[in-house]
Amino acid sequence: MAKAGCMACHAKDKKMIGPAFKEIAAKYKGQDVVATLMQKVRTGGKGNFGPIPMAPNPPEKINDADLKAAVEFILKS
Ligand code: HEC
């Protein structure tokens, strides 16, 4: 995730430009959202944690396997 630039906007347990991974994990606790969140990270999104949008993260930045691992890691935070 550091390589893909995720950490420029996210941190494990404090809010930066994007929500803390802990915050994301708490919001989706107990839900099966890996596929949904992978899609959202790919295309970008806004409105779930505030008005600041997340820019799209194309496959050149992070491949599917790494993205899946990243989302699973976030949800376990
Ligand atoms: C330019 C800053 C930025 C970068 C880079 C970034 N994010 Fe985000 N991310 C955000 C913001 C801002 C939000 C909150 C969007 C919202 O309110 O819906 C967010 C939200 C998220 C969410 C929750 C999405 C939702 O709709 O609930 C996940 C998961 C996530 N980011 C993962 C990642 C991963 C993985 C990467 C690296 C591939 C990444 N982010 C890179 C800024 C960023």
Radius of gyration based on Cα positions: 11 Å
- Biggest beta sheet summary: none
CATH secondary-structure class: Mainly Alpha
Number of strands: 0
Ligands in the model, by name, code or SMILES, are:
heme C
**CATH H level, superfamily name:** Cytochrome c-like domain
- Return residue spans where pLDDT drops below 50 for at least 5 consecutive residues: none
**Terminal residue distance:** 14 Å
- How does CATH name the architecture? Orthogonal Bundle
Note the overall shape: globular
Total separate domains? 1
User: How confident is the prediction overall: mean pLDDT?
Assistant: 97
Task: Give helix % range.
Answer: 25-40%
Order of helices and strands: HHH
CATH topology (level 3) name: Cytochrome Bc1 Complex, Chain D, domain 2
Relative strand content: under 5%
What does this structure look like?
With 77 residues, the chain is mainly α. It has a single domain, classed as Orthogonal Bundle (Cytochrome Bc1 Complex, Chain D, domain 2). 38% of the residues lie in helices and 0% in strands. It has three helices and no strands. It starts with 20 loop residues before the first helix and ends with a helix. Heme C binds next to α2 and α3.
